[in-house]
Specification:
heterodimer; A: 323 residues; alpha/beta; Glutaredoxin; 10 helices; 35% helix; elongated; B: 509 residues; Rossmann fold; Dihydrodipicolinate Reductase, domain 2; 2 domains; 10-stranded mixed beta sheet; 15 helices; NADP binding (chain B); G6P_DH_C (chain B)
Chain lengths: 323, 509
C-alpha cells in the first residue's frame, strides 16, 4: 500500500502506476472504473463489497470520502493493487474546499475509454445525474434502503429524479422475486385480476414491486404491512385461484399456484456484493426500471397533489407508506 | 400450445430476468460415477442457488444399489458440499432435497423401470413436474441401448401434449463412423432429433462462446481472418496428468478419439466457420456443418500426422509411470496418448491454411488454446539484424485455464538502436472470470431443461467428425506401435518433424 499525504490527482495516478509495477505485473486488464462515494464510517464495508464484486468485474476502484468542507482543501490517498483485489484501488480522503470540487480529483483518475460506475452505499444525492461526481458515470447506483435521512421518501426522490443510467439496489433486490413471478405466469398463462404485496412498513423494494406490477399488469395492487424481513408475500389473484409466494422469514419461500401442490423455493436475501456484481453486469439503460420509476414517481406526485388540495391529516399519515 | 397472450411480466428489454426452466425433473442414470458427483450434481445445486431451477424441480437417481431416497440424498449432499461452485445454503438444499428420489435396479430389471415410471408420475402429482423429464445417461455407451429400450417399453418416453421428454448423453459418441451411426439409430429410434442433447462440455465454456463474440462482434479481426493474412492455426489441448485409473475406458480409445473428434474439431469449426445468419441453434449448426464438410486430409497421412505414448520418467518434479506400465493397460497396447494431425479446410477463406490439432496426456502443463498465427510482414524496412527475434504475429484464445486472449506482436527493445522482438499483450477477463462465471455444466444442464440446443453438437456434426478421423485411425492401425515420448515435455519428436516439414514449429503454450 502506498500512503500519500496532501497529494493531487497526478500524485495518485503516478502511485497507481508505481503500485502496479511493483506488484510485478504492469498489465491492465480492468474493465471499468468504480467510484464509491461514501462516509468514513461506511467506507470499509463498501470497499469490501467492491472487492468481492471486483472478482467478476476487474476494476479500478476509487473510494471517495468527503470530509468537513470548511477550511483549506487537502487530499490524502492510499493506493494499492493485489491483496485480494482483482484490479486496483485508491482510497481518497478530501476535506476543506476541495470537497466541493471532488470531480476535479476523480476525473483524471478514470481509466481511459472504460465505462464508469458511481455508487453511493448510503445517502445518495437527490439527483445523482446532476451531482458533479455522478455526472462522471454512465451508471449511477444508489440504495434507497440504506438512506439515513428521509427514509420513507428516499425511493420516491430517486424515482422522481430518474435519469438514464440511474439504478437503485432496491430494484436489484427484486430480481429474484420478479423472475419467480414471471416464471409463475409462464406456467399459468392466466389473467391477473388484482395483486398484493406485503412487506415491512418501510421497504423501497416493495414500493418498486407494487409499481412494477401495476405498470405491467394494469390492475390494482394493494400494499400491506408486515413485520418483515423485507418483502414477505406477493399474491396474484386469477380466475382459477391465487398464485402466492410467501416468504415469512427471509430465506425459504413457499410457492402456491392453482391446481399444483405447494412447493418450497429458495428466495434468499442477497448480500451487497452480489447485488453490486449484478448491477455492474449491464451498464446500459434499464428501461424496465425507468418505466417502474416513472410510475412510482407519478404516484408520489399525485398523492402529494391530493394532500395539498385536501389537506387532510389522515391521508398524510397513511399515504405513501403503506398503500 | 394455445394462442395464449404473452406474459405481461416479461419484457424483452428486461434482461435482468433470467430464464427459469419450466416445471421439470431430471432422471440420472449412473449416479456414482465421477462425472455425476463432480459435475452434474454440483451444477444442479448451483443452478438452484442462482434461482434458475423451477420450484418443484425433482432429481431421480437410478442405479444398482440398495438405497432409499435418503441414502441417495446423502450422496448428492456430499457431492454438492465438496464440489459446488457457489456457497452452501441450507434453504437451497431444502428446496432440492424435497424433490430427490431413488429407484434401485438393474438396466435389465423390468420391475425397476415400472417403479421409475410410478415415481415420475408421483412427482408430477406431488411436485408438479408436469410430465417434463430429462433422462441423463451418465453411463457407458454400451448400455444406452438397454436403457433407452427400457424407457420406451415402460412408456417413459411417451409424453402428453405440451410436455417433453429429453435424453442427455455424454461423449464418446461412438468410436468410429459406423458405431456413431448405430448409437444415433438407437437414440433416434426412441427420441426425436430435437430431444437428444449431446454434451460436449467445452461448448458450455465462456471462452468458447466468446470466440463467437470476438469474431462476429468486432470489426478488428474479421478482415484478417482468412488465408491472405493467416499463416496457420494451432489448436492444442494438453493435459499434465496420465490416464490415472481410466485404463478400462482409455485403452483402445486413445487421444484422437477422446479429444480430437469432439473438442478440437468443434473448436476448429467455431474458429473457421462463416458468420451464421443468427445465433439460433439451426443457423449455427449449418455453418459448423459446412466447415466440417470442407475439412480435407492431406494426401500423405504418414507425413501429416503424429502419435505417441508417454514413457516413464519425470513430469513436473514427480516420478511417473509410462503408459504401458499403468494398471490395466496391456503391454502390447498401441493406443496413442498423444495425437497430432494436420487438416486443411477447402474453402475460399482458408485455402492453403493448415490447421494443426494436437492433444496429449503427460505434457508440459494443462492448457487448451487456439493460436491463430499470422504471416510475416511482406517487407521489413529494417536492417537484417533488427528483426532476427521477430517471429509471426499471433492471436491466442486461451480456453483453459486462465481464460483470456493473448496478442503477440513485435516491439522495439528499449535502449537498443533498433532491435525488434516478440512481445505479448494479455487480456485476462479470465483470471477472475473462473470464479464468478458459471461452470460449463450449469449452462448446459439449464439449456437442456429450457430445450435450448445451440451449444449441443447434432448427430450430423458427430458423423462428419468421424468421417475426418476414421481414415487417420485406419492409417495408424497399420503402423504398429506409437513412438514413446518423454513425460512432462511437449510430445514426440515426430510431431515436431511434422511441422518442420512445413517450415513451422509448435508454439509452446
Amino acid at each position: 500500500m502506498i500512503e500519500l499525504l496532501d497529494t493531487t490527482a497526478a500524485g495518485i495516478a503516478a502511485a497507481l502506476v508505481k503500485a502496479r509495477t511493483s506488484a510485478g505485473s504492469p498489465v491492465m486488464g480492468m474493465v471499468l472504473t468504480l467510484v464509491i462515494v461514501v462516509d468514513e464510517d461506511e467506507a470499509e464495508a463498501a470497499m469490501d463489497a467492491a472487492k468481492a464484486a471486483s472478482h467478476e468485474h476487474p476494476a479500478r476502484v476509487l473510494g471517495v470520502i468527503l470530509g468537513d468542507g470548511r477550511g483549506t482543501g487537502r487530499v490524502d490517498a492510499q493506493v494499492a493493487t493485489g491483496q485480494g483485489w482483482s484490479g486496483e484501488t485508491a482510497m481518497i480522503r478530501m476535506r476543506g474546499e476541495v470537497c466541493r470540487h471532488a470531480e476535479s480529483v476523480v476525473l483524471p483518475l478514470l481509466l481511459p475509454d472504460a465505462p464508469v460506475a458511481v455508487w453511493w452505499p448510503c445517502d445518495p444525492p437527490d439527483d445523482p445525474a446532476t451531482d458533479p461526481l455522478g455526472a462522471l458515470g454512465q451508471r449511477r447506483i444508489t440504495d434507497a434502503a440504506a438512506a439515513t435521512r428521509a427514509r420513507t421518501k428516499a425511493m420516491e426522490i430517486q424515482c422522481a429524479s430518474y435519469a438514464r443510467g440511474n439504478t437503485d439496489l432496491a430494484w436489484t433486490r427484486l430480481t429474484r422475486w420478479r423472475a419467480l413471478l414471471a416464471a409463475a405466469l409462464d406456467q399459468h398463462p392466466l389473467k391477473v385480476r388484482r395483486a398484493s404485496v406485503e412487506a415491512e412498513r418501510i421497504s423501497p423494494s416493495a414500493d418498486l414491486l407494487v409499481a412494477w406490477l401495476q405498470d405491467r399488469l394494469k390492475v390494482p395492487v394493494e400494499r400491506r404491512s408486515s413485520e418483515g424481513p423485507g418483502i414477505t408475500e406477493v399474491v396474484l389473484e386469477t380466475g382459477e385461484g391465487d398464485i402466492r409466494i410467501a416468504r415469512p422469514s427471509g430465506g425459504l419461500a413457499t410457492f402456491t399456484s392453482p391446481g399444483q401442490p405447494d412447493r418450497p423455493v429458495a428466495l434468499p436475501r442477497r448480500a451487497i456484493p452480489e447485488l453490486l456484481a449484478e448491477e455492474l453486469r449491464r451498464l446500459d439503460e434499464d428501461e424496465v426500471y425507468a418505466a417502474t420509476a416513472r410510475r412510482l414517481a407519478g404516484r408520489g406526485a399525485t398523492k402529494r397533489a391530493q394532500r395539498r388540495s385536501t389537506g387532510r391529516r389522515t391521508t398524510r399519515r397513511t399515504g405513501g407508506k403503506t398503500s | 400450445m394455445t394462442d395464449a397472450a404473452p406474459n405481461p411480466l416479461r419484457d424483452p428489454r428486461d434482461r435482468r430476468l433470467p430464464r427459469i426452466a419450466g416445471p421439470c425433473g431430471l432422471v440420472l442414470f449412473g449416479v456414482t460415477g465421477d462425472l455425476s458427483t463432480k459435475k452434474v450434481m454440483p451444477a444442479i445445486y448451483d443452478l438452484a442457488n442462482r434461482g434458475l431451477l423451477p420450484p418443484g424441480f425433482s432429481l431421480v437417481g437410478f442405479a444398482r444399489r440398495d438405497w432409499a431416497n435418503q441414502d441417495f440424498a446423502q450422496i448428492v449432499h456430499d457431492a454438492v458440499k465438496r464440489h459446488a461452485r457457489t456457497e452452501f445454503r441450507e434453504e437451497v438444499w431444502k428446496q432440492l432435497a424435497e424433490g430427490i428420489r431413488f429407484v434401485p435396479g438393474d438396466f435389465a430389471d423390468d420391475v425397476a423401470f415400472a417403479k421409475l415410471r410410478r415415481t415420475i408420475e408421483e412427482l408430477d402429482q406431488e411436485r408438479g413436474t408436469a410430465g417434463n423429464h430429462a433422462f441423463y445417461l451418465s453411463i457407458p455407451p454400451k448400455f444406452f441401448g438397454d436403457v433407452v429400450g427400457q424407457l420406451k417399453e415402460h412408456g417413459l418416453t411417451e409424453r402428453d401434449e405440451g410436455s417433453w421428454r429429453r435424453v442427455v448423453v455424454e461423449k464418446p459418441f461412438g468410436h468410429d463412423l459406423a458405431s456413431a451411426r448405430e448409437l444415433n439409430a438407437v437414440l433416434a429410434d426412441v427420441f426425436p432429433t430435437g430431444s437428444v442433447f449431446r454434451i460436449d462440455h467445452y461448448l458450455g465454456k465462456e471462452t468458447v462462446q466468446n470466440i463467437l463474440a470476438m469474431r462476429f462482434a468486432n470489426e478488428l479481426f474479421e478482415p484478417i481472418w482468412n488465408a491472405n493474412y493467416v499463416d496457420h492455426v494451432q489448436i492444442t489441448m494438453a493435459e499434465d496428468i496420465g490416464i490415472g485409473g481410466r485404463a478400462g475406458y482409455y485403452d483402445g480409445i486413445g487421444a484422437a478419439r477422446d479429444v480430437i473428434q469432439n473438442h478440437l474439431l468443434q473448436l476448429l469449426a467455431l474458429v473457421a466457420m462463416e458468420e451464421p445468419t443468427s445465433f439460433a441453434a439451426d443457423s449455427l449448426r449449418i455453418e459448423k456443418q459446412k466447415v466440417l464438410e470442407s475439412v480435407v486430409l492431406p494426401r500423405r497421412l504418414d507425413l501429416s500426422t503424429a502419435r505417441g505414448q508417454y514413457a516413464a520418467g519425470w513430469a513436473g518434479g514427480e516420478k511417473v509411470r509410462g503408459f504401458l506400465e499403468e494398471d490395466g493397460v496391456k503391454k502390447s497396447s498401441t493406443t496413442e496418448t498423444y495425437a497430432a494431425v494436420k487438416l486443411l479446410v477447402d474453402t475460399r477463406r482458408w485455402a492453403g491454411v493448415p490447421f494443426y490439432l494436437r492433444t496429449g496426456k503427460r505434457l508440459g502443463r494443462r492448457v487448451t488454446e487456439v493460436a491463430v498465427v499470422f504471416k510475416r510482414a511482406p517487407h521489413l524496412p529494417f536492417g537484417p539484424t533488427a528483426t532476427e527475434e521477430l517471429t509471426h504475429n499471433a492471436l491466442v484464445i486461451r480456453v483453459q485455464p486462465d481464460e483470456g486472449m493473448t496478442l503477440r506482436f513485435g516491439s522495439k527493445v528499449p535502449g537498443t538502436q533498433m532491435e525488434i522482438r516478440d512481445v505479448t499483450m494479455d487480456f485476462a477477463y479470465g483470471g477472475s472470470f473462473t470464479e464468478a462465471s458459471p461452470e460449463a455444466y450449469e449452462r448446459l444442464i439449464l439449456d437442456v431443461l429450457l430445450g435450448d440446443p445451440p451449444l449441443f453438437p447434432r448427430h450430423e456434426e458427430v458423423e462428419l467428425s468421424w468421417k475426418i478421423l476414421d481414415p487417420i485411425m485406419e492409417h495408424w492401425a497399420g503402423q504398429g506401435r506409437p513412438e514413446q515420448y518423454e513425460p512432462g515435455m511437449w510430445g514426440p519428436s515426430t510431431a515436431d518433424e511434422m511441422l518442420a516439414r512445413d517450415g513451422r514449429t509448435w508454439r509452446r503454450p
